[in-house]
Design brief:
Helix content: 25-40%
Number of strands: 6
Number of helices: 3
Distance between the termini: 47 Å
Order of helices and strands: EEEHEEHHE
Organism: Maribacter ulvicola
Mean pLDDT: 96
CATH class of the largest domain: Alpha Beta
CATH topology of the largest domain: GMP Synthetase, Chain A, domain 3
Radius of gyration: 18 Å
Largest sheet: 3 strands, antiparallel
Protein name: Putative redox protein
Number of domains: 2
CATH architecture of the largest domain: 2-Layer Sandwich
Length: 142
């Protein structure tokens, strides 16, 4: 049985759109003023990077509990290269997982990252279809 997501995206005028989400929340999409928009919303390609980091981040955070890991702070930096020719797309993406804490279990945290990128994160799998991915894990101990 497959699942279908249905998203409705409504034009608000000029270059602005509002898009809903199955969660019941909406977000505004727009482009920069220099490109003819109002700069009042999220940019579509950048949202893809947020989706990638959010998807994988949720996997890793869920494993904090399962693996009883102590982490004070966790963030993901996503740096993507956009091609020059239209249609422009991300051909290379670096995903950096940053963990901060005093008692970081580096081996288990790396396992959590590996499980997300290799097994659980569907957005990661979608990106693999069109981009070269580079994964980095950085441990910041106090």
């Amino acid at each position: 049985m497959s699942t279908t997501n249905h998203i409705s995206t409504k034009w608000l005028g000029n270059m602005s759109f509002e898009s809903n989400n199955p969660s019941g929340h909406s977000l505004k999409i727009d482009i920069a003023k220099e490109d003819g928009g109002d700069g009042s919303g999220f940019r579509p390609k950048a949202l893809m990077l947020s989706s990638l980091a959010g998807c994988s981040g949720l996997d890793v955070a869920a494993m904090f509990k399962k693996m009883k890991l102590e982490v004070d702070e966790f963030h993901i930096e996503t740096i993507a290269n956009l091609t020059d020719e239209h249609p422009k797309f991300y051909d290379k993406v670096v995903i950096e997982y940053h963990f901060h804490g005093e008692n970081l279990n580096e081996k288990k945290l790396q396992r959590a990252v590996d499980l997300s990128i290799e097994k659980y994160c569907g957005v990661m799998e979608m990106f693999r279809q069109f981009a070269e991915l580079e994964i980095k894990t950085v441990f910041h101990t106090k």
